[in-house]
Design brief:
single chain, mainly beta, 7-stranded mixed beta sheet, 11 strands
Length: 124
């Protein structure tokens, strides 16, 4: 059973940086796609970033491209989301997700494994 636990959220000011972590357990993640999604109040869940665990190929949503960086540490079984130049519109619950097939779907419906989420609030 895949377990994902996020950490690192908090309250920051616009322009600040924050790093989220997703500790993964339950199996080896070679061949998996790991992703970050976010959901703001009253909005649908939105694709943020993806990484292929094996190849480290990445993909980003248009709203975060150039500001956010996804990475993974194989030794720690952890995926990171480094967020810079944060904006108030980045405020959301950020969730880590995983799928076992190495296809980089951006739809959250394609991801069967989810963490509990971590709140990121950016004040203006």
């Amino acid at each position: 059973q895949v377990q994902l636990v996020e950490s690192g959220g908090g309250l920051v000011q616009a322009g600040d940086s924050l790093r989220l972590s997703c500790a993964a357990a339950g199996r080896t993640f070679s061949g998996y796609i790991m992703g970050w999604f976010r959901q703001a109040p009253g909005k649908e869940r939105e694709f943020v970033a993806l990484i292929n665990w094996s190849t480290e190929r990445t993909a980003y949503g248009d709203s975060v491209k150039g500001r956010f960086t996804i990475s993974r540490d194989n030794a720690k079984n952890t995926v990171y989301l480094q967020m810079t130049s944060l904006k108030p519109e980045d405020t959301a619950i950020y969730s880590c997700a995983a799928r076992s097939s190495p296809v980089m779907f951006i739809s959250p419906n394609q991801y069967p494994y989810w963490g509990q989420g971590t709140q990121v609030t950016v004040s203006s």
